[in-house]
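FAQ: What does the model actually see?

It sees only this:
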Amino acid sequence: MLASVIFYATVAHLFLHSIDNRLHKNIAVAFSVIAFIYIIEDKIFLIIGLASLFRVPFWLFECLWLLILYGFYGKNKPAEALQWTPLYADQICHLPLPSLDTMVLAAYRQEPQKALEFLEYLTTSTNQQERSARLTEKIILEEAGQRTTSQEIASLASNLRWIPQPCPEAFGIYLPKLLDIAHGVQTSLDASTAYHQLESLKFPLGKLQELKKSLTFEKSAERASAWGMVINRWLEVLETTRNSLEEAARELGAIQNPYVAGVPLLPAYSGSQFKGRAELFWRVEELALAPHPPILLLLGGRRTGKSSSLNFLPEKMGPEWIPLIVDCQGLSISSNLVSITESLAKAIVHSARMSRNLHLPMLSAADLQNDPLRALLYWMEQAEKILDPDKRFLLCLDEFERLGEVVERTQGDKSLLNFLRHVAQHRHRWVVLFSGVHPLNDLPDYWSDCLINSQTITVSFLKTEEARELILKPIPEFPDIYTMEAVESILHLTHGHPYLVQLLCQLLVERLNETKHARINAADVEAVVPDAFEVGEGFFHEWWRQLKDEEKTLLTRIHRQEDVNPKQHSLALRRLLRREIVTRNQDGGYAFQVPLLERYMALQLGE
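And it is asked to produce this:
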């Protein structure tokens, strides 16, 4: 009987470990146990057989082997000891082995290459893949946690070149983001001056603070604690570096340049620079709260702050709203309705998480194949059920004109536009907002049906006091560097245009740091105007290119102070007035609203 049991256990053992599929292996184990109970009447033989089946005798021997190996060689020569572990003789071992983790970590400290070769062997040739992944994460945590200077943080990416790219999903979001942060620190260190180093350091510091917040949602308390210690250590190091750079910048007389020209402001990084717009937010919420809200049409010229305003909606609107910001430039690159719908759903999920920490389910790819828009509508209904009854979605489609490219690419298929109109009219917990540059009169005819029930909200220039505050106090404790004449000159040239204010001020601070002057005066403002045309060439060129020939002719007459016949140029004049390019004078004539644009036009005319 004993010989039969041993023979059966050996055969079953070999059979079980030849099976890769987990389900099949579980079924085989169940049948093996039933067979044991059937053929063995003696409980002692049953226990012996089961122990043999699950390799307990082998494992006990391997544990003893490893403990002896660790005692004699593991502490002093761990890299050499790894070559004699029982895993080289027993590749199908799947039970935990004592002291192995300690030996691998010690070996990595002494001879990293041999330890990495052992981890690769565990992954490719044994049943210890989970152990290999866990050990790899421990090594990374140890490497990252030992960084005590910004130079050491910057070198992390080069030290971990052996990590496959892209990073395996087992590491979650932490390792890829830490590597990006390390690269950002290296960029800061490579900057030529302490001032530019300080500016470059903002990115990795901001990303590190975001990563720390994400630990709140880590399901494993052990992982959250381990990665949290690393992140806190890095924050201490980088904040110390920032303080040192600020001191160096002060000694050199350099001023921090907080102005941001051409990039939408984000609450996490540029909250203090966002000025005004209280009336805009009040108007959006007032219209959205109507019993039957219309489609909201947020219109404004290029770089007047539309995208920045959308980014601040989560902060400015009440908690009953879930603002969902979708960039239609990303949607327009999709080639068919299925991919467009999938991209829209993913953008909504991402925005809900960012704006209100709301985790919506992902839309199934399989559901999209047959009828993508109906699948999206059903998905939106399911999303409503997740919310409290008093909460509503505000779907904001930025650069909405890009959806016209979708219509043209799909041979005039207006399904997406019809879908958005249906949502706005019949999904009472969804309010749709389109944000862009062109009013309905300037859009192709197929937009009329979609936007027939829309109400326009204009994003105009900053008010004088709002623009003045942006100039003088872009961030708290900004030094007093402008003379009164310089401020008035900036206000006059820009007329409160947000991008142009930021652009001039950015160039002026750069000039102040180069010249070492005490303050900025009106002559400095005039000196940076040519630089503004060069640095902001994309903005100015686009503004000039989009003007129609009749509009250019009319603007030329206004610039040269020639008589303008409103009846003769009525259509062009209305467009220029609506787009806030020109305004009426007190004497009934017309003038440029933004003198800086007039001066750019003069350059184009060769004057």
